[in-house]
Amino acid sequence: MLTAVVSRVLSGISQKPASRVLVASCNFSNDATFEIKKCDLHRLEEGPPDTAVLTREDGLKYYRMMQVVRRMELKADQLYKQKFIRGFCHLCDGQEACCVGLEAGIKPTDHIITSYRAHGLCYTRGISVRGILAELTGRRGGCAKGKGGSMHMYSKNFYGGNGIVGAQVPLGAGIALACKYKGNNEVCLTLYGDGAANQGQISEAYNMAALWKLPCIFICENNFYGMGTSVDRAAASTEYYKRGNFIPGLRVDGMDVLCVREATKFAADFCRSGKGPIVMELQTYRYHGHSMSDPGISYRTREEIQNVRNKSDPIMILKNRMVSKNLASIEEFKDIDVGVRKEIDDAAQFATTNPEPRLEELAHHIYSSNPPFEVRGTNQWIKFKSHS
Amino acid sequence: RRGRTSPGATSPRPSAPHPRWELAGHAGAAPFHWSESLGRRGLIRPRPRSVVVQLQLEDTVKMAAVSALVRRPLRQVSGLLRRRFHRTAPAALQVTVRDAINQGMDEELERDEKVFLLGEEVAQYDGAYKVSRGLWKKYGDKRIIDTPISEMGFAGIAVGAAMAGLRPICEFMTFNFSMQAIDQVINSAAKTYYMSGGLQSVPIVFRGPNGASAGVAAQHSQCFAAWYGHCPGLKVVSPWNSEDAKGLIKSAIRDNNPVVVLENELMYGVPFELPSEAQSKDFLIPIGKAKIERQGTHVTVVAHSRPVGHCLEAATVLSKEGIECEVVNLRTIRPMDIETIENSVMKTNHLVTVEGGWPQFGVGAEICARIMEGQAFNFLDAPAVRVTGADVPMPYAKILEDNSVPQVKDIIFAIKKTLNI
User: Fold this and answer.
1) What are phi and psi of A219, to 5 degrees?
2) ipTM reported for the complex, 2 dp
């Protein structure tokens, strides 16, 4: 994963002449230690550390990744309003520290499954921005060939993108079962929201994961609103990290990428040691409404949103930290921003000009490993061929 | 019924009950009537339905011991067949449907270590209906997993395990309980390969008893063939006899797609002869292919699961009146082998469908619609007719239940109606 991400970072900054990069890196510290918020613990004696070491390289990498996610989501917003994207579009801007921090705490061989607010994780799990945006615009160059859309993007060790609220949680426990069955020391990060936390099937998954000691990290991305319903209107207990009951839990500052990373490392070690599942609650915030059809201000105030932007924006926090400890300069970050903007614009260009899938492929991929067969269209005379 | 004074005798003498029939525990129970037609018609079939060979006084035929008695008295016990005089009986391998499924799963568990079974009571209890008997003892906790009563949860876990590369068999104690988990079957399993553009396959089997049992009333008697058969991305099979059960469960496990195997509780204890090729560890029945159980010329009768047996019984009765029914065992609900049905209808010019499920939007409705749309329509001499379960939630009282499931007499009536006899 490291090499993949680093190469992505490098390709992003490859626009500038190499000399400038070399000069820039000479003046800065190699790493710095930051204090991070202590996690609240449930059924745990010890938690993740309250300090984190950040190297310059990692810092720039996380910054770039978060900026890509941020810009990509804003571009998706724009494309949706221009009607290039249809149907559902759930954006995760504001929650960048979650997807980047989680990825930083695990290995590429570990597994992730999440809900429909998935674009950020799609990127951090290795799908290109082009692949994501072209899937949103429903083109053949999309990562699911235009067949899935916003909520159904998959890649290696990433199981989507799931449309049914909460259904991904038992799936994640099942992936963890497969990890334990194969004995490969891998873990599965199973994400769900504060709204989904009230689904019964999650309790069923908790029970079986604990019973069978599955290496499953249940992660509640608590952005305080399930669609238009605030957490205190939906849950009798809003301490989501305790909702696993007999399963130990951590409450994590989800706006701080370092806090998320350390907590994820802690949780992954916990699972890998065979102790069974663990619950993590990431307290985070989404700037957009629930989806593109929700302005997001009928159930919360503009002031609240602005307040979070000013005080807790994850990208701003990382940048300020790095600058304050002389890990990078403001100009460097500006350069990265330029590179990111170009990458996103290029991807959007691709997503709006790439052709739609061929009509002949409408019935493809119904069955796997099957000889081709005929599929009925909207009337008995319309027939499609289905290839696996 | 016809048991003791069976017209199935091939002897030129009028058939009289052989004293040995009593000993075989035959008293009071109805045998397999379709098997009796064999002896009577002198039909030499590639796969005889004979179950037990009976010793006749002047015969050199050996009698094979029968021990596959089903617990419930209403159920058929082992059928008896009178063989021709001069033929020696082959060593018939009798296997109940339950044991056939058990064998099929055992062979696939042995063949591929990624295969595992999970469900309620499948391990230490040997299976609620004893279908998984002996498997936990042989394979242990890792491969045979008892789950809590959490259908939505464990079905989702099974689907997730399939996505991550294992090959789970997820048992529902009955398919009625699969309704709790139906979102996982349809939205997480069936649609995923399509939604992912071919990136993520889900090689999972959902199996369990489907449809009416005996006296279990409304919430435990629903047939889900039409519900699951509705959805693209799923394969749905419905075995009738032991050969079907074994071949289809093995094909389902080896298939890289989500397959729903609709078994039948009343058929679990019924023994059938398993032909020699079905005893092989690589015996598979292709999913998507129907089988003609009985050749005929006057009417095509299509059924799946237990009603196939009833159709064969009806065919035997009608045969005496000179009506030859062609009985088609669907075997697969989706993808449906409409071609076999069409070819048959083009030969016989009449169609009757038989199923245990409700009539509205059922399997028979789909067959009729497709026949209308295809070339076979021009060959129909009468409208196609459906025999189905009654359009009511299953009642409990025996007289009501008996009139809510299709009986042999209903099939005979429908056939005669369509032939205008």
Assistant:
1) -120, 115
2) 0.92
